[in-house]
Amino acid sequence: MLSAPAVYVCGVLPAPVVKHGLEWRPAVILGAVNCADEFNEKVCRDFRITGYPTLKFFEAFSRSPEDGKRISHVDSSLQALRQGIITHLEKYQDVYPPLEPGSTEEVHGFFQKNKVAYLSLIFEKNDSFVGREVTLDMQQYMNIAVRRVLSNEEELVKEYNVTTFPSAYLLVSNGSFSRISVQEEARSSYTSFLRGLSGINDKTLILKAQNVTTPPPSRVPDAEHPTETTHWNYADSSKLYMADLESALHHSLRVETAKFSILEGEQLEALKRYVAVLTKYFPGRPFVKNFLHSLDNWLEEVKEPNISHRALEKALKNKKDPPNPAVLTNSVTWVGCQGSEPRYRGYSCSIWTLFHLLTVQASLYSARNAGPLEVLGAMRGYVRYFFGCETCSEHFEQMAAESMDQVKSLDEAILWLWSRHNRVNARLAGDLTEDPKFPKMQWPPPDMCPSCHKEINGQHAWDEAAVLHFLKGHYSPVNIYFAYTKPEKFLLARDSRDAEETTGVKGKGNGIAGMEDKGRREEEEGGEQRRTEQVDPVVGRKMVAQKWQALKAAALAAKKKQHLSKRDTTPLLMTDDNSRRAVDYAAAQEHLRRRGLKSKEIIGVLEEEGDDGVRKSRWFHVLGLGYSHLDISLYFLSSMCLLGMYTFYIRLGSSKGRPRFPMA
């Protein structure tokens, strides 16, 4: 329960706003909840926050989330946030200090009724917020009061000879007054001047000096959990990282959709289209693709007009049933999209990367009957109905409404998204949301694609043919790197550990397959032995024999681990819609990783083409083993020579016959 009026802003608040929120207590309590953070998912859903920034006003002694009244939509500027708070605060009758305009009668008798040394009058027009902001700025200071006076209060305006609005005057209890001289007639200048007056003391500092503590107000939702020190992940800007892409999938499917208790109508259809496009084109690892296929099938089978959050949450859980586990990371790891601080880049960067990749994938798989608006339409629906930043969503919808329907080919779809992304970068350059260490720029820069840039009549221009070629290479699956991704076994083990924590059953190890501690292994082995001893002796012998056979099979598999044959590469090939054999890059990396090869040893893909440009074949080369084409040729010739020599001597020995011994 709140002891004072409160305004909670759902979104990431800049530091100056938080600072003003502290200064305006106890007139109003200002707090912030980052609904883009998965940690606050339940709080934001309980308070029915579906986008940010969202401002909700709670009167004093509010008890439940339903008591919050949403303040009409404001933009994300600091000034708009402050003004929105003040406008709603004025509707609350018992607010102190008073924000209504002062009258001539009140000013003339002020020092007789109030024991303060100073009274500051802020003369302004009716639509100005300067006087109200200064009033709130100074309400924690003793021995001074602030009142706003409107320009239509003619008697006071004439008495103090006021000619400009806004302007500020300082009245002293001894009867003297003077105009406050500042470089700029603005709120910050007036506040700074008044706080520097002699005899003006901060109430909070006095209470601290007297060892008097004021009880903190009750909290509505918890603020964002403490930020931990972020480990910096090295990234190459010329590469894509699967960790970013999988994190984007997790956040978009599990966090952004979790804000809604019910999905129905166009919103539900937008989710279905988004998942269908991901299932069709996302070049993920096998278990991630299984996850998307499973979710897509579930959504297609939904016949009801709506689905609940609980049902969707269940469908989005990882399924570890062999032989085809469906698993997606349950956390985010930013690599190429990591910002200098947690509030920068991250998800917004990764969702752009994801859709650029999908437009290129649709172009590469044109035989799958992809329409030019298939990926763009899915992106438009997702951003419109699910993307948390409401301002971003509105701007993207405006761009889509302007020209998206003019896209007539898959290549045009790639270029449309690229050009709109650059337009967004231009709009946000210098914005509060911009990461100072990663400034917004027109992309790709000249150092990444020199041929993309040209000059026409002294003006910069894009060579769109070169840009298209660059985009198809940059957003190709072969340019995706798997550094910092979690292995399948790790994800499955963590799921098991999370399930144990949820049900209250705690394991004794760290929960990660292949990394269990010695105590857990000994406990499992001891438990197996005890179970064997408790069963029938015949059954027990069979169990021991089965275990021995399993150990032999495991040893044999380990012995053959480093040998790679043509049979091993067969599952890594897939047939595209033109009946050609193509490489499933993600499956290849996962399959070979299971064989024990490191990422640097894994894959080189050679595509041989005839003069007519038709693909002939694709082969895998295990580059890490250190063999080149020349090495293989020499080894082959040496083997043939040795085989020939061996055959020659065998036949020579046969022709001479066996030695005979004399008979007795």
TrEMBL record:
GO terms for molecular function: flavin-dependent sulfhydryl oxidase activity; protein disulfide isomerase activity. Its EC number is 1.8.3.2. Its cofactor is FAD. Residues 496-536 are annotated as: Disordered. Residues 340-443 form the ERV/ALR sulfhydryl oxidase domain. It is an enzyme of class 1 (oxidoreductase). PANTHER family: QUIESCIN Q6-RELATED SULFHYDRYL OXIDASE, SULFHYDRYL OXIDASE 1. It catalyses: 2 R'C(R)SH + O2 = R'C(R)S-S(R)CR' + H2O2. Catalyzes the oxidation of sulfhydryl groups in peptide and protein thiols to disulfides with the reduction of oxygen to hydrogen peroxide. PROSITE patterns: ERV_ALR. It comes from Alligator mississippiensis. One of its GO terms (cellular component) is extracellular space. This is Sulfhydryl oxidase.
